[in-house]
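assembly run, all chains below
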Amino acid sequence: MTVTTRLFISSMSFGLVVAAIYWATTKELVGTVLLGLFGGGFAFVSAYLISIRGKTRLDGDEERTPAELAGERIGVFSLESPWPVLLAICTAALLIGVVLHPMLAVLAAIGFAVTLWQLVRESV
Amino acid sequence: MSAITAPPRALVQHGIVAWLVTTDHKKIGILYMLTSLAFFGVAGFLADVIRLQLAQPQETIVGPHLYDQVFTLHGTAMIFLFVAPFGFGLANYLVPLQIGAPDMAFPRLNAYSYWLFLLGGLTVFSGIVTQGGAASAGWYAFAPLSDVRVSAGTGQDLWFIGLILTSISGIMTAINLLVTPLVFRAPGMTMWRVPIFTWEMIATALMILMAFPSLTAAFAMLLLDRHAGAHFFDPGAGGDPVLYMHLFWFFGHPEVYIMILPFFGVIAEVVGVFSRKPIFGYTGLVLSAFAIAGLSMGVWAHHMFTTGAVNDPFFSAMSFLIAVPTGIKFFNWIGTMWRGAISFETPMLFAIGFMLNFLIGGITGIIVASPPLDFQANGSYFLVSHFHYTLGGGSMFAIFAALYFWFPKIWGVKLDERLGRLHAVLMFIGFNLTFFPMFVLGMMGMPRRVFTYSASPGWGALNLTASVGTLLITIAVALFVCNIVVSSRKRERLPDDPWGGGFTLEWATSSPPPEFNFEVLPPIRSKRPAFDLHHPEHAHESPK
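ok done. output:
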């Protein structure tokens, strides 16, 4: 089992055990749910990591050197994109609009959808 | 999965546009750090106003309503917009470098996170120009103090909206900070060779993912109470204000560790380099970070002892337990220094200041984790002093240690040592002069968040001492700004490792690093790959 998987499984176990102890000692619902979600979230990731075991080398390879793998394609890293800043502006305007000004919310929602679409198009 | 290089792409944009559209982790890291330091400047100014107002009994520089706004914005800026975001910025800059990756896992998401943080911070402060002024319900905005009947102004709405934005930003930053070191490490960089700072960021990211959604939910519910006729926290309509406290502190206490774990990592890196020794107890440092992260999720209601609505023994025991892994960290830092060839450059002075201050903050934390003592201390200046010792004397000192330590790497300029040492000493004296008297004031019964006090309890001299201390801190920070200006004029070409003993991979590339970070990655055969590269004669001493 990889270090990464052990990390998530131990975090999950800790969360669930503390949630159980908390419920047993307090019978208080809000904290139990929050602690349960803490354990449950890690359970979700742990299950995924167990399901892909053997297919990846998440812990890395101790003996290989960077030179041996030079040229391996690991993905495309963009250096710049105009869409994140525009999407952030639309997100802020949308939230402010929803609370304080419906018309602003409508305009921001349109802007958000268009910008998100452009961001997705650029990313794929 | 391994990262070695990435396809180079020509930069198209220049000047300010290049910064607006950048997705480069180093530029985003710099933006995060500069923005958080700007918020620190504003929050520091507000602290000066607070200390001026409290310097003498019956002072009238600001009235009660303005004072409420000032301390609310001071706390908000320090907690949400300075300490934690500075850690995000530092991690943005360093994590890919330390693991030999070309960038963060999700560069566009990273840029989006930064801009949301900036806009969130500006939204919080935009309340100043609204009718009724900025938010004034304190940085935890307890219901019903923050409901629409008590805090009707738009400023309070903007405060919630701004912090929801920064909260979303934090969650997305955490996703990047978790995925990048788990899947983008260079060949040879096994998990047990990952630098301590990066490990601390992994633990921090896990805490953020667990804690921040609770805050976002609490603020969204409060906005629904304020504007949509909901009554989640309205006791008059069957709601429960204690529910808000649970949701807020389920975020709020892990947040304390979100603000300190990155800087535990900074201290480990700094102490190792300036003790000229490998870090003592690497595994203990890593495991203690996760122990702190886990335990911190189960201590939230020690902030609620005085409500009488929580299980005191459970939360008290969990809070005491956190002292154990924190003690392990102290043990490891001291073990690293033990019999080392210690040199007292500015980052090391700040690291030692951090340890002394944080120790006081930690010990007084054990005091307030005890319910009977907390009932005495909770609403008093004792508590103010305690959390300033952990976050001001702790995180802020570590932030300056980090700034001096990595400034040559980030900007290619080494800051002046004489000014730096003066800054460190002045700041240590100023800090303790400001906050130690507050322990005594708290024990004498001075309540927190009062805008003035009468002369009769005899609090005047200690308050004046605290205000003089704040003046010294302000002068120390001004010295830091002067240092940057003076040092930048003496720009010279720096080597990859200007300190001459750097452990981690960022010291194996140019200062500042090129696009995609490395021209050539060195072999990674130990926990100190950069040290092995520059000192091959001692490579056999590096822990594998």
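Chain A has a mean pLDDT of 85.

DSSP finds four helices and no strands in chain A.

not gonna interpret more than that til we talk
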